[in-house]
Amino acid sequence: MYTFAKRIFGERRRVRFRCDYFPFVEPGVDVGVDCWVCEGAGCSFCKRSGWIEVMGAGMVHPRVLEYAGIDPKRYTGFAFGGGVERFNLLLHRIDDIRLFYGNDIRFLRQFA
Amino acid sequence: MKVSLNWLREYVRLTLPAEELAHKLTMAGDEVESIQRIGSDWDGVVVAEVVRIDPHPNADRLVLVTVDLGGRQQTIVTGAPNLAVGQRVPFAPVGTPLIDGATGERKTLKLAKIRGIESAGMVCSAKELGLGDDHSGILILPADAPVGAPLADVLGDTIFDLKTTPNRPDLLSMLGVAWEVSALTGQPVQPPPFDHPVSQPPIAERVTVRIEDPDLCGRYSAALVRGVRIGQSPEWLQKRLQAAGMRPINTVVDVTNYVMLELGQPMHAFDAATIAHNTIVVRRARDGERLTTLDGVARELDRSMLVIADPDRAIALAGVMGGIDTEVTEQTTDVLLESANFHNYTIRRTANRLRMRSEASLRFEKGISPELTIPALQRACRLLAEIAGGQIAAGFVDEYPGRAPVEPRPLTSADVERVLGITWPLERIESIFRSLGAEVRRDGERLLITPPYWRRDLNLTEDLVEEIARIIGYDELPATHLRGEIPATPPDPLLVTSERLRDLMVAAGLQEVITYPLVSREFLNRAGPAPEPIALLNPMTMDQSVLRTSLRPSLLKTLAENVRRQEDGLAIFEVGSIYLPRESDLPDEPPLLAFALTGPRGRSSWLGTNEPYDFFDGKGIVEAIAERLRVALDFTRSTDPFYHPGRAAEVRREGDVIGTLGEVAPDICAAFDLAGRVVYGELYVRALVNETLPVYQPVSRYPDVVQDVALVVDEAVEAEKIRAALASGRFVQEVRLFDVYRGEPLPAGKKSLAFTLRFRAPDRTLTEDEVSRIRNGLVERLARQFGASLRG
Asked: Which of B406, B452, B412 is nearest to B430 (CA)?
């Protein structure tokens, strides 16, 4: 996750892991990088926190493994995910997520 | 949950600065979304005592108030109606930033002359200090507030806005947060006192509780408090409720709310005199049963809801809101306190259905611990005895059908290593769980952990391991890279083909779009009747209530929306699935490639004319795909009413229809507000998969012979059929239609089709004569089959 976050958001970024709750993992992780607009000082982009949540992750919940026919006593799994819209919002400084679903050619052509 | 640090200090010593504590909580999963500092902008505002009030010489409504600021006095002008000598009030000197009571804007207090008298400062209302909305009078401070002290020392506080995750209802309580702080900072928790005085006769002689639906109510506990004084709660209690964002009402209601905030157990108080036969029945509501709730709304209930009733009628909506008939009023003397545990989903559904989510339902719906009911009653009884003079009837009524034994959970170092990849000494693990309020026993190499009763989320080994990780801090865990081999998987041919198609379409100048698979039924059928779709059981909106069985409406809509803001031609495509229901299986979800074109073919330029897209552009796209993917496709006439008659084709591979293309019928264009010609095509991606590798064909060393032939046929004869017949001729390598002619000297209803034929033999040079013979043979066959004649 650390390597991924640095590759996507830049080597300069600090990456943090904090406990969070997602029903399909236990323990659950929220992966954040420090805000690149204010360099972590706190601004409107990061809602004054200095950090941007970029991904959810964690150890696959044993119940999920069980349902998939995998013995959770023998195996553990690591899961992670981030919305592609969210990555692109962050990377391209797009301020409205609805643009991704609007299919406005003037928007799409900027990324063709 | 709004957490006042002043309040929190009652249960645990706060050894860290607020910022640092907030960071620790956030990292441990208890996100502090904001920190509000009450009083941080009260520079210079102090506690003042009113020593004199004189009339204003020039105004009836104003007075001159002299205040003592602790050794020096100041006289100011005010219109506030609620001042009296001896009161302690907040005093702001000139230069203090205050909120304007009338406009709500922040302004710096200036030296002012009011009706001829200079006023060097101001006594403030709650609103002016940013403490609430009250601007009806000056904020009166507690009588023991030290005169001259900064107001921030008396009223200042820091409030954390804590975002709680659904698995942690215990963090919707001050004590729950205190345990969290304890585990993170090593400071012990000092729980509040739970003991209280009791009086006779005991509650058991007065009150009966009967649970008729134990699946929806796992526990119902109650206490009886006699002779309560209903009135205003003391200052400290009101302040704490306000800090948590709640409005003080009266002693009894305030105590139930206070205990809910302190322990996380919602409570309700009934006027005991209004309960028929002193009997509480917990049961499902009857269909059509009516209850007027505390907000004065008469509500109709149904069997999915749980009510508290007496033998005659429903008296409260369990876990959501009380009823107005049994409300505690000024006249109430005896109070029945309810502290119960209701089924989380039932409460959630009821609160959503009736649109009345409350602080109580918010906690119940997360599944709080049934073990909370008695501690909550104990605290409430103690507080009511203390602040409202209540006599507590001895004992509690406690119906507990949902009692479940709590087994200690075993945990070993190996468990921790399996999940976290690190080893951690058992002693450290033990102390972490103790700091969280758990009971821990050592049993050889394993720990037996009994979670504290307020934590219902610690069941599996993984839950316990997470506690260790988050209290140590995730950032403290070492990072490693993945080791071991990743098993090789062959690429999925469907995905490979889809990706290839996208690249081909983009190379052909089309723009990719992605539309929603969920649409409305009306929209789905706007481009003509579509197959019956699968409807969602619980759609978010009607616009997204069925799974599409066609891409046509989505592409035409996207085209129409872009036409409005675009001068040039538009060419878009999508690779997306449709969802076709099947009798006894999950739906089939074939991916489709669909494209739509409209407007001029290119940008207008000096290069010449710029005709609109037509059928042949669409066919060209499909042919390009066929060529690049090396699949042989044929085109036959289509009668699909979606298309313009005569300008549509079915696309076939080895005889099977694998798609269609054509110019869209005018009535369908009109349904999407599309003017002008629109070309549309769609192909099943599965039918385009070609996993074969090309096999080398020897290249002939002998030259080609090229001959042209022009044939006159009836209008109705399709050029494609003629082309196919010519292509079947001996030595024919390629047939290309290069001209279509109608008009003089041809008779009406006839057309001339001119083809170039390329002949080649693998083993020798063909002679012109030989080629002409083959060509003439083909012409004769076409004359018989299609009535074709050689054009003069």
From this structure: B412
- 């830049």: which residue's tokens? A10
Query: B525 to chain A, minimum CA–CA distance in Å?
Result: 21
A16·B168 Cβ contact <8 A: no
Interface contact flag, B462 A112, Cβ < 8 Å: no
Quick: pLDDT tens for B571-612. 999 999 999 999 889 999 999 999 999 998 876 666 666 789
Model pLDDT for residues B441-450, shown as the tens digit of each residue: 999 999 999 9
Distance CA B7, CA B174 (A): 8
Do the interacting molecules here have an ipTM over 0.85?
A: yes
User: Does the predicted model carry a pTM greater than 0.80?
Assistant: no
Instruction: Detail the DSSP E strand segments found in B508-569.
Output: 511-512, 518-519, 546-547
The whole-number pLDDT of residue B608 equals: 65
Q: Classify B46-155 by CATH class.
A: mainly beta
Scanning every residue of chain A, which has its alpha carbon at the shortest distance from the alpha carbon of B33?
A49
A62 reaches B (C-beta below 8 A): yes
Do A19 and B474 lie within an 8 Å CB cutoff? yes
Is A48 a member of any domain? yes
At B15, list the tokens: 């050894």
- What count of Cα atoms within 13 Å lies in the side-chain half-sphere of residue B744? 0
Interfacial residues of B (vs A; Cβ cutoff 8 Å):
26-29, 31, 34, 165-168, 418-420, 460-463, 465-466, 469-470, 474-475, 477, 479, 481, 506, 511-516, 558, 561-562, 565-566, 570, 572
Mean pLDDT of B98-124: 82
Digit-coded pLDDT (tens) for B266-318: 999 999 999 999 999 999 999 999 999 999 999 999 999 999 999 999 999 99
Q: Which CATH number fits the domain B2-39+159-185, given the four candidates 3.30.750.24, 3.30.56.10, 3.40.50.970, 3.40.47.10?
A: 3.30.56.10
